[in-house]
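Table S2 (continued). Query chain:
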Amino acid sequence: MKVSKIALLAATVISVPTAYAASPDFNYVEGGYAKIDVDNSDYEPDGFKVSGSALVGKNVFVNGSYTDTSDEINNSDIDFNQLSLGLGYRMAASSNTDVYGVVSYEEAELEDYDENGYGLTAGIRSRVTPNIELDGGVSYIDLDDDDDTYLNLGASYYFTPEAAVSVSYRTSDDNDIMGVSARYSF
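Corresponding output:
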């Protein structure tokens, strides 16, 4: 099912008319709100997320994100924090669409659970209009004894070449992660 969603996303991103759109933006910082919906649980932490990306060559980029969320269960705050630091490579599929891959260090902390591991991401980013950028992909996260595969979807609306608002959604068999953030491109 998720493979068909990814194929649909790729077909949509590539087939949108884009004669006047710019290339995707890989130089930005953003911050905002994040909410995690854990399947089969009352635990639904929310909080803030900061992330960024920067080109370190024509096609190589670094990226990172930190999410700090919490939820109250039985009159006790339970914090959940995630850190991701990655090195990626992008390749132009057209003047406004890039395909990319990222290898990342991953860390997750929940009460006594403190695990680290690696992540692999493959995706497509496209500037479908001068103001709208779409992002879709698949991530595999392996944390010690736990692994998960995510479908990632995102969209950014640029009010100016530097300022945008972004929404994101990640889903796996175990949880859904939603976010809204303000982005500054440099």
